[in-house]
Automatic annotation (TrEMBL):
Higher taxonomy: Bacteria, Pseudomonadati, Pseudomonadota, Betaproteobacteria, Burkholderiales
Pfam families (alphabetical): DAO
Protein name: NAD(P)/FAD-dependent oxidoreductase
PANTHER family in the cross-refs: FAD DEPENDENT OXIDOREDUCTASE DOMAIN-CONTAINING PROTEIN, SARCOSINE DEHYDROGENASE-RELATED
Domain spans labelled FAD dependent oxidoreductase: 64-424
This protein's record includes keyword Oxidoreductase: yes
Keyword terms of this UniProt record: Oxidoreductase
GO molecular function: oxidoreductase activity
The enzyme's E.C. designation: 1.-.-.-
Length: 469
């Protein structure tokens, strides 16, 4: 049985009375929550108590920089502002700290940004720009690793295994491995099915795999709690249960209305990810496509069960499906797996979405069929319309800045994004700003109101392409 929200304890804040967790929450239609309990995730159940925060906003106040959202992005931005630029920001969070994707993901820290592969960077921007972008993202990944090294977050180094879920996907992986090695200088390696099974994992549907040496699995909520402790030690104020429900700009000052008072800010950083409510600010309207991702964790496997299932590595894994599965063995021996979920929040509890994960797990590891599922949850990923993130100031006449569009690849990239967002906010120059993830705002979408109709059709098409043709 999956854990119910009530069964999950651990990370709580004692500075406000929390409201019930809404499993059907949908950023495109729901009202922004206030002080909602955490989703019932493995991470919430195992992170221990949340660090001290500054309680909800209780009166009107004037601040220099306000950050909206306390996930990895908002926290890393505030941390960098304080550490590198001497600016003490005020972080406004609708619910508990790190309540969004940051406490719900798979903890796979990849050397990646957005949903495009490096070969697709070359196709889109040419070789020179792709190489400069690679240097930027690689530097960001190294920065994130340095943050991980300073925080107790159950880090599991070991790189990333990218498995071919069908034999015909091997050619794609071989090409990607070649590009990564020959063009970008990574020590990537192809593994045959036999090598994969013998040394890493007996994934029964995998035809082989690409092994990239970069990649660290983490306990994301312990990592986020570490960011909170560091930021508050530097004077950052973090206010949970303080949703921004209205936003007016008067004479260049941003009036952010929360239930407890208006926060008047000279500069605003927006870090609300896939949880960005419709109408938060015109510059964000229809720029982010929230996509629901599902995750579950088994109870800890015994050494014998791991042996029988052929689980020999804690290196994290993704497969080549467009609607990919991502999975890993956690430090306590539990097995985590995730993939797509429903299109709308109202359908999120439909058992067929959990069944899709179970079927995926059992196809790969038949031995795990009878192992009880201990946790199941879901969360909204922020996908941009061109599949790449942006850290931008959408209107040069307004002191509003944002970082969005990680497309399910934000565990490591969000920290780098926060570092660059902090630089944006203080107006720091740099050669990197002409790169495609910085030099334009998020693109819109001509048919934005109908995107979900298209999404449902694409899911059917991707299924046929992934499994049948
Ligand atoms: C199931 C799942 C699995 C994933 N697995 C991986 C993975 O393995 N590897 C990987 O790289 N990425 C993964 N991701 C994506 C990754 O978790 C995100 O990219 C990352 O956490 C984004 O962080 P963020 O700070 O930008 O946004 P979030 O963590 O979503 O934080 C946004 C915050 O803004 C708050 N907010 C929203 N509106 C308001 C408002 N009006 N006022 C105040 N606060 C507001 C929300 O309450 C929320 O806490 C996964 C995501 C999901 C859902």
């Amino acid at each position: 049985m999956a854990a119910s929200p009530e069964a999950v304890s651990g990370a709580v804040s004692d500075t406000f009375k929390e409201s019930a967790y809404d499993p059907l929450y949908d950023p495109l239609v729901s009202k922004t929550g206030q002080g909602q309990a955490y989703a019932p995730t493995y991470w919430v159940g195992t992170a221990g108590p949340a660090p001290q925060d500054d309680g909800p906003i209780r009166a009107d106040c004037d601040v220099d920089v306000a950050i909206i959202g306390s996930g990895f992005t908002g926290l890393a931005t505030a941390l960098n502002l304080a550490q590198e630029h001497g600016v003490r920001a005020v972080v406004l969070e609708a619910n508990h700290t790190a309540w969004g994707c940051t406490s719900r993901n798979g903890g796979q820290g990849q050397n990646a940004s957005g949903r495009l592969y490096r070969s697709q960077w070359i196709q889109r921007w040419g070789l020179e720009t792709a190489k400069r972008l690679d240097a930027e993202i690689r530097g960001g990944f190294e920065y994130w690793k340095s943050m991980v090294a300073g925080i107790d977050c159950d880090a599991q180094p070991g790189g990333h295994l990218y498995t071919a879920h069908r034999a015909k996907k091997m050619a794609f992986l071989e090409n990607e491995a070649r590009v990564m090695k020959e063009v970008f200088g990574y020590d990537t390696r192809m593994l045959s099915r036999a090598e994969l099974h013998e040394h890493y994992v007996r994934d029964m549907e995998a035809a082989g795999a690409l092994l990239e040496p970069d990649g660290v699995g983490v306990h994301p909520l312990k990592l986020a709690f570490g960011y909170i402790r560091k930021a508050r030690a530097l004077g950052v104020k973090i206010h949970p249960a303080s949703p921004v429900l209205g936003w007016e700009t008067i004479n260049g000052v941003h009036h952010l209305r929360t239930p407890g008072g208006v926060v008047r800010a000279r500069r605003v950083g927006v870090a609300t990810g896939g949880y960005t409510p419709q109408g938060l600010h015109p510059s964000l309207s229809n720029k982010i496509m929230p996509i629901l991702s599902n995750s579950m964790v088994t109870r800890p496997l015994t050494a014998q069960e791991r042996e029988e299932a052929g689980l020999k590595t804690t290196t994290f894994i993704t497969d080549t499906r467009t609607l990919r599965f991502y999975y890993r063995l956690l430090p306590d021996g539990s097995m985590q797996i995730g993939s797509r979920s429903s299109v709308t929040g109202s359908d999120a509890r439909n058992p067929r979405h959990l069944q899709l994960l179970k079927d995926g797990l059992y196809r790969k590891f038949p031995r795990l069929r009878d192992i009880p599922i201990a946790y199941s949850w879901w969360g909204w990923v922020d996908v941009s319309h061109d599949m790449m993130p942006r850290i931008a100031q959408p209107d040069p006449t307004q002191q509003i800045y944002y970082a969005f569009g990680y497309g399910g690849n934000g565990v490591s990239f969000s920290s780098h994004a926060g570092r660059r967002l902090a630089e944006r906010i203080v107006g720091k120059g740099g050669k990197h700003w002409d790169l495609p993830i910085y030099n334009s705002p998020l693109p819109g979408h001509l048919f934005a109101p109908f995107r979900r109709l298209g999404q449902a059709m694409f899911y059917k098409y991707y299924y046929l392409r992934d499994e049948i043709f």
